[in-house]
């Protein structure tokens, strides 16, 4: 057993789609280390999002094991898995996925309500996260009043507010224009370089992958190669 | 989380308002209907156990000979008896409907201590043959004061020329218990007997005799003795407790509780459907939100709680308004119904029932979307974009 | 251009669960309304249809029902003998008789007390009503005997009302010697000999006079004439009028109850319908944008959604009617508030009831759909298309 933070061992996953069985992950083995910014790339259907979901405990392999920060995810169930996820993972989605009925501040506070914090502490931590992503002045705005780039920044603030062990980003720039996309990627890079956050980002855009240090190339459900960019 | 519950309701203000509206109407109705039943029963519940009512065993509409009174008085255990004759008249217009009774005034005063005089005096009433004692509400409604002359037209006992019988108001009373209502008109039996004799040539009979049972006597045996006295006629009697006597009028209206349950059931179904519809819609719309929350680490149970919470909040608001409106309308309704149906009140038990129904609807309406939310896999929920 | 109805049908089907809930809500409301109306119809028609227009009822002036009325025997006899409007039989004897009436307490089979009418009649009454009273078991009572006959509807519902039983009225034991059928409220009564009943119940006089009238008699005119008569003042009306007047209190109450229930449940149903329609429109905003862009004007859009709501109403109404049809013919009883006696009758789901029910359901649909349809028609195509 290596001491990599994320360990994927012989993971397989298949889906039923229209009567056919598709093998999305086919015996994948992979180690990912703490403090690094990984980009997951590959043709569509290569299982990158599925892998991301598994690392975040949102999906389960048909066979094989996933270890994250020493925790064997397959052995966690129900409320334990939810609690683990709340403490250890921060998600960023392509569609931002903010709750439209809550303000930016309240959206960022939402995952903090799962932690044993007082209301004042929650507010403080959320404010800090918003400050970090540069959205402090729009804290009381609702998602409907924000641009795409601004929404995604709030989403990132939400993801880091709980100080998770790993940030999982699924095509975070897919719905953004070039300028906003760059902003977001720079922000993620900063989180990694300055704050030593471990980041896994699924993307099909090579330009986006440039911001990461290591690129995981998946093909037909297996690891094709691992590309190293520069030292952390 | 609580904030989330309410924010979600506010997302669709019209829908939430309409649903709350249905509940408000339904819960208000529930309080009202249930109160009709409890008011009817209150008359029975608060009945005096020391008063017995002697009426014809044959029919409500048959009178008893006046001579019976002396015989009843002689029964051991009977402290006093009072004649009680329904007069069935009206004041000026037939729509001015209220109860009038020809009674023995001294006995009325003694047997009904709960009749408290607030204006005029009992003595004045007892001493003046053409006087009357009226309830406070009645006096207020028609603006009668002590000393006024009140004309009553007889519908059951009409004068040949159709003119009214004249009475002087000697006293105004207020009841201290639910056994007497505040809208009754009492006058002298002797006045009634004399006027009827002048018209028809013969003395009238008595509808009912009321017995006050002595402290140390057993009401049940007094009842049996009185019934036995007149077994062979000319009019067979049945003596009942005051509670039984009141109950007979209630049951005459028909099976009121059953009817009201039927109504309540129909209304309950209607509002349940309205709430279920709303919650299913809400559930469908919140699929993505549920997925997000699960991705953030909220448990399945908490998303169930979210949906149930929304349902309960919606119903709670509707039910709460309904109860408040019912309580607020209590006095106006009581006044409106006063003539047929005195003493209308909403009891605490009724409020608890309304709260219970509100919670039940909230839970039932929230269960299906709640379960569906808790069972949902985040991955599927988020995929549906 | 009008939007095709198939569009509405398809969209109702797509949102099946909401559609179903709305239909059930409207259906339940309509069924309850139809139920109460059928009860009222059953009650009212029992009286109204059985009353004859050639039979007259004479009461004391000012009486509203025979229970209040009293007719001294000598005066009644005078009336019977002298009134020319009364038909005579083949023996030149007037077809008229006196009757007494008291609502007596009886125990119900299965518990509880109720009031049953006891009618004391002369043999003449049988001649007057003719086929209206049909002995189906046993025989008529003999004049002056301690015998009674019982209406068919009572024998199973009231104690001691079967052939051979003895009913005790006051102190008089009376044997049930016959069961009779009648189309109207008589079927819930007990009949005995007039004099015997007067005596048993200690009544001073009969309550009313009934008589068959000659053809072409104007009853109103007759009433005008006799009501102020010095010798024998009376109030006259046909049997049909009298029976109809006896239904007013309960009929009125039932109609009020029906209307009240319909409104309360209907409001909840309308709210459900509105919510359903609003959600439907909200999710079809894009489609509506397309329709508008394709050239459909707002009014046809408005009508289209209104049609959809009316369709919901109609379906709900049909469901409600189907639910209430099985009630037809079911025997029940109610207290006639005018006389405080119990009357047995059957639910009658008449065409009027069904029409009222369906009309009401359409009204519900209309109310439910009006605001949403208006919203749909007011949509601006550009905004509508932008959504998703």
Keywords:
heterotrimer, B: 385 residues, alpha+beta, 2 domains, eleven-stranded mixed beta sheet, 14 helices, 56% helix, C: 388 residues, ten-stranded mixed beta sheet, two-stranded antiparallel ribbon, 12 helices
Task: Tally the beta strands of chain A.
Answer: 10
Q: Roughly how much helix do the residues of chain C carry, as a percent range?
A: 40-55%
Number of strands of chain C: 12
Percentage of helical residues of chain A? 25-40%
Strand proportion of chain A: 25-35%
Contiguous uncertain segments of 5+ residues of chain C:
none
Average pLDDT score of chain C: 88
Task: Describe this structure in a few short sentences.
The complex is a heterotrimer of chains A (232), B (385) and C (388). With 385 residues, chain B is of the alpha+beta class.
Give the arrangement of secondary structure elements.
The complex is a heterotrimer of chains A (232), B (385) and C (388).
Chain A lengths: L5 E12 L2 E13 L4 E5 L6 H8 L7 E6 L2 E2 L5 H11 E4 L11 H6 L9 H15 L14 H14 L4 E5 L7 H18 L2 E5 L3 H4 L4 E6 L2 E7 L4
Parallel strand pairs in A: 3-8, 3-9, 6-7, 7-8
Antiparallel strand pairs in A: 1-2, 1-4, 4-5, 9-10
Helix pairs in contact in A: 4-5, 5-6
Chain B lengths: L1 H10 L1 H33 L5 E6 L11 H6 L4 E9 L2 E2 L8 E5 L1 H7 L3 E6 L1 H6 L3 E5 H7 L6 E6 L10 E11 L8 E5 H12 L7 E6 L5 H11 L7 E5 H11 L3 H30 L1 H10 L3 H38 L10 H28 L2 H6 L2
Helix pairs in contact in B: 1-12, 2-9, 2-10, 2-12, 2-13, 10-12, 10-13, 12-13
Chain C lengths: L4 H10 L1 H35 L4 E5 L13 H10 L13 E12 L5 E9 L1 H7 L4 E5 L8 E5 L14 E4 L2 E10 L8 E4 H7 L7 E5 L6 H9 L7 E4 H7 L2 H36 L1 H10 L3 H27 L6 E6 L4 E6 L4 H27 L3 H6 L2
């Amino acid at each position: 057993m290596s001491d990599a933070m994320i360990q994927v061992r012989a993971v397989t996953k298949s889906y039923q789609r229209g009567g056919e069985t598709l093998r999305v992950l086919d015996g994948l083995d992979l180690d990912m280390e703490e403090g690094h910014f990984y980009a997951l790339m590959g043709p569509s259907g290569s299982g990158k999002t599925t892998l991301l979901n598994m690392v975040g405990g949102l999906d389960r392999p048909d066979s094989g094991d996933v270890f994250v920060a020493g925790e064997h995810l397959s052995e966690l169930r129900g409320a334990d898995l939810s609690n683990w996820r709340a403490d250890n993972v921060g998600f960023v989605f392509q569609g931002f996925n903010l709750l439209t009925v809550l303000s930016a501040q309240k959206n960022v506070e939402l995952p903090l309500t799962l932690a044993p914090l007082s209301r004042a502490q929650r507010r403080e931590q959320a404010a800090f996260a918003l400050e970090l992503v540069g959205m402090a002045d729009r804290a009381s705005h609702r998602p409907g009043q924000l641009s795409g780039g601004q929404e995604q920044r709030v989403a990132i603030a939400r993801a880091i507010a709980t100080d998770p062990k790993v940030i999982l980003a699924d095509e975070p720039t897919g719905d953004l224009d070039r300028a906003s996309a760059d902003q977001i990627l720079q922000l993620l890079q900063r989180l990694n370089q300055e704050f030593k956050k471990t980041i896994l980002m699924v993307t099909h855009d090579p330009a986006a992958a440039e911001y990461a240090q290591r690129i995981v190339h998946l093909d037909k459900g297996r690891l094709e190669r691992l590309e190293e960019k520069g030292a952390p | 989380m609580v904030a989330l519950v309410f924010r979600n309701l506010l997302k669709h203000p019209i829908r939430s308002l309409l649903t709350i509206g249905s509940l408000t109407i339904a819960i208000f109705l529930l309080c009202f209907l249930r109160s009709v039943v409890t008011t009817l029963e209150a008359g029975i519940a608060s009945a005096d156990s020391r008063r017995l009512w002697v009426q014809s065993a044959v029919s409500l509409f048959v009178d008893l000979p006046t001579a019976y009174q002396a015989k009843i008085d002689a029964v051991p255990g009977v402290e006093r008896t009072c004649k009680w004759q329904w007069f069935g008249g009206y004041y000026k217009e037939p729509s001015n409907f209220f109860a009038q009774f020809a009674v023995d005034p001294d006995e009325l005063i003694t047997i009904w201590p709960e009749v408290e005089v607030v204006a005029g005096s009992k003595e004045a009433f007892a001493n003046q043959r053409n006087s009357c004692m009226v309830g406070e509400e009645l006096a207020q409604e028609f603006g009668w004061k002590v000393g006024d002359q009140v004309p009553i037209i007889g519908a059951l006992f009409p004068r040949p020329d159709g003119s009214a019988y004249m009475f002087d108001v000697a006293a105004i009373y207020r009841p201290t218990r639910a056994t007497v209502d505040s809208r009754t008109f009492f006058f002298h039996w002797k006045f009634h007997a004399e006027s009827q004799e002048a018209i028809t040539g013969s003395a009238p009979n008595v509808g009912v005799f009321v017995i006050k049972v002595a402290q140390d006597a057993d009401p049940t045996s007094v009842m049996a003795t009185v019934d036995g006295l007149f077994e062979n006629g000319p009019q067979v009697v049945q003596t009942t407790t005051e509670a039984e006597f009141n109950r007979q009028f209630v049951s005459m209206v028909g099976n009121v509780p059953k009817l009201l349950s039927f109504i309540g059931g129909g209304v309950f179904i209607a509002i349940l459907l309205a709430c279920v519809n709303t919650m299913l819609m809400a559930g469908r719309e919140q699929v993505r939100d549920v997925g997000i929350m699960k991705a953030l680490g909220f448990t399945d149970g908490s998303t169930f709680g979210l949906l149930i919470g929304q349902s309960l909040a919606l119903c709670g608001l509707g039910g709460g308004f309904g109860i408040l409106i019912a309580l607020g309308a209590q006095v106006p309704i009581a006044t409106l119904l006063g003539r047929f149906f005195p003493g209308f009140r909403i009891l605490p038990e009724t409020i608890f029932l309304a709260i219970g129904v509100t919670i039940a609807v909230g839970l039932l309406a929230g269960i299906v979307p709640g379960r569906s939310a808790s069972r949902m896999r985040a991955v599927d929920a988020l995929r549906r974009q | 251009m009008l939007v095709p109805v198939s569009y509405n049908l398809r969209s109702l089907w797509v949102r099946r669960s909401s559609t179903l809930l709305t239909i059930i809500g409207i259906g339940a409301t309509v069924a309850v309304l139809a139920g109460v109306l059928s009860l009222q119809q059953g009650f009212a028609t029992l009286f109204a249809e059985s009353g004859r227009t050639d039979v007259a009822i004479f009461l004391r002036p000012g009486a509203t029902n025979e229970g209040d009325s009293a007719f001294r025997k000598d005066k009644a006899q005078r009336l019977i003998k002298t009134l020319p409007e009364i038909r005579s039989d083949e023996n030149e004897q007037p077809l008229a008789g006196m009757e007494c009436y008291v609502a007596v307490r009886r125990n119900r089979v299965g518990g509880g007390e109720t009031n049953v009418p006891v009618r004391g009649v002369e043999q003449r009454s049988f001649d007057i009503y003719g086929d209206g009273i049909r002995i189906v078991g046993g025989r008529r009572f003999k004049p002056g005997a301690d015998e009674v006959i019982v209406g068919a509807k009572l024998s199973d519902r009231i104690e001691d009302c079967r052939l051979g039983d003895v009913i005790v009225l006051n102190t008089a034991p009376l044997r049930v010697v016959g069961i009779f059928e009648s189309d109207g409220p008589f079927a819930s009564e007990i009949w005995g000999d007039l004099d015997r009943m007067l005596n048993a119940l200690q009544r001073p006089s009969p309550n009313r006079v009934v008589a068959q009238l000659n053809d072409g008699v104007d009853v109103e005119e007759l009433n005008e004439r006799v009501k102020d008569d010095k010798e024998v003042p009376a109030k006259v009306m046909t049997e049909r009028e009298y029976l109809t007047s006896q239904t007013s209190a309960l009929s009125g109450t039932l109609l009020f109850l029906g209307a009240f229930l319909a409104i309360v449940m209907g409001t909840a149903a309308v709210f459900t319908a509105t919510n359903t329609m609003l959600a439907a429109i909200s999710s079809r905003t894009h489609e509506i944008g397309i329709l508008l862009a394709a050239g459909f004007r707002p009014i046809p859009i408005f009508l289209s959604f209104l049609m959809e709501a009316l369709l919901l109403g109609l379906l709900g109404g049909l469901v409600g009617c189907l639910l209430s049809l099985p009630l037809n013919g079911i025997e029940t009883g109610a207290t006639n508030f005018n006389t405080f006696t119990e009357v047995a009758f059957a639910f009658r789901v008449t065409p009027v009831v069904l029409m009222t029910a369906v009309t009401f359901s359409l009204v519900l649909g209309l109310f439910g759909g009006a605001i949403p349809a208006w919203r749909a028609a007011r949509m601006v195509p550009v905004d509508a298309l932008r959504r998703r």
